[in-house]
Write a structure and sequence with these properties.
214 residues, alpha/beta, single chain, five-stranded parallel sheet, 8 helices, globular, four-stranded mixed sheet, Rossmann fold, 9 strands, 44% helix
Length: 214
């Protein structure tokens, strides 16, 4: 992007109950748009099968996580499903300063904290499952958690769904392609917001100067 049309980066926050599809949706968006990067959260939980440190999460011991809390090194952090999750502040700040966009795959608690820290830069999207029965099916199908963990996630889902009113947009993920199209349209429209494109003012001024010179 040329310096003449440099834009301010945005923070796209995507939340959902566990298993509703936010991770698949956000990863597809990142794959399709090179100006968008993932904010990789830190967590104290153990990696699931197939997960890699630094890709899905930064996996850290609880003592290390606590040190970062005390150093105010997180943009947000919360305890979820008996583990700690947090968003390291430094990489997000660097990306936004360079005009890149950052997507957050975080829960409603983190979304609320991030939005409070930078309300003009944050766009919040909540992803709903078509039904709780479908959510249960998805959690069992991915075979990443023990049955007691799945039960806790399903029990927590109702409380998470009640937070939908905190969000700017809501998507029902009953069909991945349709849900992804909705998320993509939201992202592209928000990129065009006037306040995120400070180059437009000088550009219009130049157009008007051309007109007055005719």
């Amino acid at each position: 992007m040329s310096n003449e049309r440099a834009r301010r980066g945005l923070m796209l926050v995507v939340s959902s109950p566990s298993g509703a599809g936010k991770t698949s949706l956000t990863r597809q968006l990142i794959a399709d748009y090179p100006d968008l990067e993932l904010s990789i959260s830190m967590t104290t939980r153990a990696p699931r099968p197939g997960e890699e440190d630094g890709r899905e999460y930064h996996f850290a011991p609880a003592a290390w996580f606590q040190e970062m809390i005390e150093a105010d090194a997180f943009l947000e952090w919360a305890e979820v499903h008996e583990h700690l999750y947090g968003t390291p502040k430094a990489p997000v700040t660097a990306a936004l300063a360079a005009g890149r966009d950052v997507v957050f795959d975080i829960d409603w608690q983190g979304a609320r904290t991030v939005a409070a820290s930078a309300p003009e830069e944050v766009v919040k999207v909540f992803v709903l499952p078509p039904s709780l029965a479908d959510l249960s099916r998805r959690l069992h199908a991915r075979a990443q958690d023990a049955e007691d963990v799945i039960r806790r996630r399903l029990a927590r889902a109702s409380g998470e769904i009640r937070m939908w009113g905190d969000y700017d947009y809501v998507i029902v993920n009953d069909d991945f392609d349709h849900a992804y199209a909705d998320l993509r349209h939201i992202y592209l429209a928000e990129r065009l917001q006037r306040r995120r494109n400070p180059w437009i003012g000088p550009f219009v001024k130049g157009l008007l100067a051309q007109s007055s010179g005719d």
